[in-house]
From TrEMBL:
InterPro entries: Glutathione-S-Trfase_C-like, Glutathione-S-Trfase_C_sf, Glutathione_S-Trfase, Glutathione_S-Trfase_N, GST_C, Thioredoxin-like_sf. Residues 84-206 form the GST C-terminal domain. It comes from the Bacteria. This is Glutathione S-transferase. Signal peptide: none annotated. Pfam families: GST_C, GST_N_2. Residues 1-78 form the GST N-terminal domain. It comes from Aquipseudomonas alcaligenes.
Length: 206
């Protein structure tokens, strides 16, 4: 059986939500992260989630690859768009932006500064700059959402499933992030979706 490996509260929540939105018969397996004995290391050599293992053992990693793959299992789903369409490219563009600018370039140094310097004295500066980068990244999204309900096509798509996670992570920071009203509006719309509620419940996040 195809299995999606996740860790509660991690970015793998996006793929978990997509599985539920699409009604796919995929097993959800919870694993620990950053522990040497976690079974995720036997699945994904990088020790990261999400990781999607197909029936034949094929492994797909990274939300930016897993989310489109999942949606393509349900042709015509409003979560994605037809191959060759501008909307599909726009959704993929946002997936790339969220993975690169929001997650890797901003949240990662904010949460794990030790990956960028072994000098503990440098960590406060790394976190401070990461927060500046994160605010800039979200201000771009805030401007885009001023006259929109969702990121692309005025409907909930894969991009919103992914973005919603990061909007909840902002609640831990507060400050200027609390002033992003369009982001807050999207977060509440995201939370209200039955599939999101189901995923949050399953991961113990409600």
């Amino acid at each position: 059986m195809t299995t999606l490996f996740i860790s509660p509260g991690a970015c793998s929540l996006a793929s978990h939500i997509a599985v539920l939105e699409l009604g796919l018969p995929i097993q959800i397996e919870k694993v620990a992260l950053r522990t040497p004995d976690s079974p995720i290391h036997a699945i994904n050599p990088l020790g990261r989630v999400p990781a999607l293992q197909l029936d034949d053992g094929t492994l797909i990693t990274e939300n930016s690859a897993i989310l489109p793959y999942l949606a393509d299992q349900v042709p015509g789903t409003p979560l994605f768009a037809p191959a060759g369409s501008a909307e599909r490219a726009q959704i993929q563009s946002w997936l790339g932006y969220l993975a690169a600018e929001v997650h890797a370039a901003s949240f990662r140094p904010l949460n794990r500064p030790e990956r960028y310097s072994a000098d503990a004295a440098a960590h406060p500066g790394i976190r401070a700059q990461a927060q500046v980068q994160l605010l800039q990244a979200f201000q771009h999204i805030e401007r885009h959402l001023q006259e929109r309900q969702w990121l692309v096509g005025e409907r909930f798509t894969l991009a919103d499933a992914y973005l919603g996670i990061f909007t909840t992570w902002l609640l831990r920071i507060g400050g200027p992030f609390a002033e992003l009203q369009a982001i807050a509006r999207l977060r509440e719309q995201w939370r209200a979706r039955p599939a999101v509620q189901q995923a949050l419940q399953a991961e113990g996040l409600l």
